[in-house]
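Please, structure for the following, as tokens.
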Amino acid sequence: MTLPDERYRSIQQARRLLEELCDPRKTPRVAAGIRDRARGALRHYPGEWDMQRAAQAAPEVFQERMEDLHRFIRSGSAADSGDPG
């Protein structure tokens, strides 16, 4: 089961990966075509402001952080219901 904070973090990590693919100093052996595709994907990729707004609008989908107790309850309730995630 993917939790809202994990989903939020995943999008941030994907953004960092795309940014690194665009930077030849960080990824020197990446083909120009891949750099172009990464740059294109970043053009409309959600930034931090977008993600914060998404978290405010839909906290059940995106959350910057979840309290440990809330995480435990969410994880436990999925396990109790037989929902694999």
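The chain has four helices and no strands. The two ends are 3 Å apart (CA to CA).
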